[in-house]
Amino acid sequence: MDLSFSAEEQTFRAELRLFLADKLPPEMADAVRLGRGLSKQDHQGWHAILNAQGWLAPNWPKEFGGCEWGAVQRHIFEEECARAHAPRIVPFGLSMLAPVLQKFGSKAQQDHYLPRILSGEDWWCQGYSEPGAGSDLASLTTKALRDGDHYVVNGQKTWTTLGQHANWIFCLVRTDPTVKQQAGISFLLIDMDSPGIEVRPIILLDGSDEVNEVWFSDVRVPVENLVGEENKGWTYAKYLLTHERTNIAGVGFSQAGLAAVKRLARSQQHRGRPLIENPHFAARVAQVEIDLMALSTTNLRIVSAAAKGQAPGVESSMLKVKGTQVRQEINDLARRAAGVYAMPFASEAVQGSNEAPIGPDGTAAVAAQYFNNRKLSIFGGSNEIQRNIIAKVKLGGGG
Amino acid sequence: MNFELTLERQMMQDSLRRFLSDRYTTQVRNDLLDSDAGFSADIWAQLAELGILGALFAETQGGYGGAGFDLAVVFEELGRAGVVEPLLDSAILGGGLIAAQGSADQQKLVEQVIAGSLHLALAHGEPGSRYDLPHVETTASQQDDAVILNGCKAVVVNAEAAGYLIISAREYGAPRDEAGISLFLVPSDASGLSMRGYPLLAGGRAAEVVLDRVTLPVSARLGAAGAGYPALAERAAAASVALAAETLGAMETAMALTGDYLQVRQQFGRPIGAFQALQHRMADLLIELTQARSAVINAAGHLSAEPRLRDLHISAARNLVARVGRLVAEDSIQLHGGIAMTQDYALAHFAKRIVMAEHRFGDADYHLEQFIDLTAT
Ligand SMILES: Cc1cc2nc3c(=O)[nH]c(=O)nc-3n(C[C@H](O)[C@H](O)[C@H](O)COP(=O)(O)OP(=O)(O)OC[C@H]3O[C@@H](n4cnc5c(N)ncnc54)[C@H](O)[C@@H]3O)c2cc1C
Ligand SMILES: Cc1cc2nc3c(=O)[nH]c(=O)nc-3n(C[C@H](O)[C@H](O)[C@H](O)COP(=O)(O)OP(=O)(O)OC[C@H]3O[C@@H](n4cnc5c(N)ncnc54)[C@H](O)[C@@H]3O)c2cc1C
After folding, report:
1. Which residues, other chains included, contact A144 with Cβ-Cβ below 8 Å and sequence gap of 6+?
2. Contacts of B278 in chain A (CB under 8 A)
3. In the prediction, which pLDDT does B230 show?
4. What are the backbone angles phi and psi of residue A241, rounded to the nearest 5°?
5. Span B103-118, mean pLDDT?
6. Cα Rg of chain B (Å, integer)
């Protein structure tokens, strides 16, 4: 056992800090810090900055232009980026689709799509969930019927995050309705500009417009857009889900969030003293910090084991549950810390204008974020589903 | 002991519930949330006509209720329907303070409140005061027969709609002293008074109010100079009964929506309500909700008790309801899954009402601390 970072790791952290201080645009960091929505251009701009440095794809193998970093280096990267209030890396192309293409895609697909993900030419979104297929993803009904050298796709996807920005969507579609659910699913790449696709925004409870419905009517998709084999899509989908869960613990986000809570609690007065000195509030903060310290190590232990070839199974479910609990608790603390100033609705109109936001620095978006981040325990496999997985593996029982 | 509501209160509950379930649909509410005014003048007038505003005042004040249980019955129904109209601000706080403290002349305004023709707002909290009730830095200085107010007031709910603001200001003493706080009845168009309005996350509107040498006649004082605190504390207690009851009603609706959804949402070939993991969560929520109702009853039943006993029950209820509220809001969303994250689905609004109520007149920690202070000796 050795809990210290090696000399190279420390050098890497120092290099990263310099890079972030130099290259991360301050207005972008402010927007992230204050919880303002980021535009497509913001995300693309940040991706381009990372790509220029060669750091956009920490988990990709070198042969595809990635960093192929180890667990600790990725951990440091996530920690430092969150600490500097860098925008998150939009995961759909980089950490979801890319690993699937790298493992199961044809050479032609790899050569065509992977460079376009790095360059930002393509923005991908994830078309898994449907109105009737949430936790029970395998019950999906969007169908793709073979017609010559095309598939004809009909159906509806939903909850498609940032689909309004995307020009491509990777979808699970049903290609064989006659077999067991999981056996008739294929993994299809669809150009969002194809005739017959309609994207409709869904407004979330905090007023944000990050998710969409995507409707398909007689959309023609060339057969070469099939990934791997027909009817093997479920295997690829599950492979993708394990990647979806790699940074699922969100340790960096929690660390940055907790630091923000402390800043806020130092600036807020409670009965004539800084709120941070109030024993009830301080105890809440300490409790979460204790959990987070252990979580950081849990995360490193699991990710390191995974790097040695032990595929994370039940462990990633544990990280998902605990990681989201910690993040949501921190959102709750921020809401509490803001006091009465949690109440104003920081609409885009207020935030986007030149007017200063209502209330002290850092309070404007806390309540909206508290509500928005309820999603963390719902998507990517709900926490109940994760518990079912853990119980099934550890007890051999069912859900 | 008798846990039945009186016949009058049952009738009021029935008629209010019927009115709101007819008129206050999810669509109507969502339209209101998007509107510039933030609430409906039309529904306000109808609530007045139904006598709901009058039920929040005692007979001696021109109403026919005003007791803790009247407030609790009305606000539970408002919460159940997700009502965003400012009954708390115009009636309980504004009207209540004028009724309790006002001169005969000032009290005439209460009639207008009950009739639905006048809105009010309490401008008390300040940017640095958080939930601390005696913390007033806004100053009032008397020069001959004029009083001059200077200061800032934070998150003044309903300020823009109000014809008058009731403004607390310090005439003497240190910022956290109970003695020295006066209340003033100030026309919202008084010169030197400016506001910056904005919508609230859970519906309705508020404003940051700046008082820059607002000059008033001494007759604008509500009650005696420097002696406003006890009345403020009494109305804060009444507001807490109302908020706790409103949260209770909103939780009832959140639970009902969740219970229904668990029956109809199918995953893995069965209703999700068939999963024991979810059944147990629901069972726990129902247990907590039952507790919350008892805490609200305790608080309502002690609103007119002596201040220490009153505040002990108020803080107990606010602490318990805040804890349960968070649980109910979060779990109702979780048990629904993604659908509950959408603005259009009814639950979103109730979850926000429940959680954001904790930010008025003290959150769970504030009331825990109050409770400790009141019970430690
Ligand atoms: C903000 C947001 C963004 C999203 N982004 C995307 C995206 O980009 N692409 C995409 O494809 N999807 C996305 N999703 C969809 C997400 O993956 C689903 O919401 C999730 O799978 C849950 O499905 P559901 O919402 O239909 O809930 P349901 O599956 O209907 O679940 C409802 C409740 O039942 C519980 N439950 C279900 N089955 C069981 C069981 N067997 N045992 C115990 N409890 C159970 C759930 O835990 C939950 O509490 C997003 C969702 C949200 C909210
Ligand atoms: C101190 C003590 C005094 C008692 N006194 C009496 C008495 O006076 N008279 C009398 O008749 N009995 C008495 N009992 C027995 C008591 O009623 C049983 O212990 C109880 O019914 C549980 O049965 P069990 O211990 O066999 O546990 P089990 O029934 O085997 O349960 C084991 C665990 O599984 C859980 N479990 C079981 N079924 C389910 C399910 N369907 N869903 C979810 N979880 C489940 C249980 O909650 C428990 O956690 C007493 C027990 C104790 C410990």
Report:
1. A151, A152, A153, A173, A174, A175, A186, A188, A221
2. 384
3. 98
4. -60, -35
5. 97
6. 21
Closest by CA to A83, choosing from A37, A133, A33, is: A33
Q: What gap in Å lies between CA B311 and CA B303, rounded to an integer? A: 8
User: Which architecture does CATH list for A7-89?
Assistant: Orthogonal Bundle (1.10)
In this complex, the residue of B129, B266, B341 whose CB is nearest that of residue A375 is B341
Q: Name the segment(s) of chain A with CATH classification 1.20.140.10.
A: 249-395
pLDDT value at residue A399:
41
B234: pLDDT strictly greater than 90: yes
User: Are the beta carbons of B342 and A377 separated by less than 8 Å?
Assistant: no
Q: Ligand 2 centre from B289 Cα, in Å? A: 26
A244 is known as an active-site residue: yes
CATH code: domain A123-231 is 2.40.110.10
Using alpha carbons, select from B367, B255, B373 the residue that is nearest to residue B317: B367
Please report the pLDDT score of residue A304 as a whole number.
81
Test mutation, A209, A211, A271, A363, chain B, max B CBs within 10 A: A271
All CATH 2.40.110.10 domain ranges of chain A, comma separated, are 123-231
| Integer CA distances (angstroms), A268 to A168, A346, B359, B365, in order | 45, 19, 14, 15
Is residue A223 classed as helix, strand or coil in its secondary structure? helix
Q: How far apart are CA B54 and CA B62, in angstroms?
A: 7
- Specify which residues A124 forms β-bridges with: A168
Instruction: Name every chain A residue with its beta carbon within 8 A of the beta carbon of B121.
Output: none
Please say whether the structural domain A249-395 has been given the CATH code 1.10.150.20. no
Ligand 1 first shell, C-beta below 6 A: A 126-129, 134-135, 159-161, 211, 375, 378-379, 382, 384-385, 388, 399; B 265, 267-268, 272, 275, 277-278, 334-335, 337-338, 341
Strands (E) in A12-162, as ranges, are 124-127, 143-147, 150-157
Give the pLDDT band (50/70/90) at residue A312: low
pLDDT at position A352, please? 56
The stretch A147-172 carries a mean pLDDT of: 98
> Per residue in A331-355, pLDDT tens?
999 999 999 999 999 765 445 566 7
- Rounded to 5 degrees, what are φ and ψ at B207? -150, 150
Tell whether B270 is within 8 A of chain A (Cβ): no
| pLDDT value, residue A347 | 67
Using the Cβ of B254 and the Cβ atoms of chain A, whether some distance falls under 8 Å is answered with: no
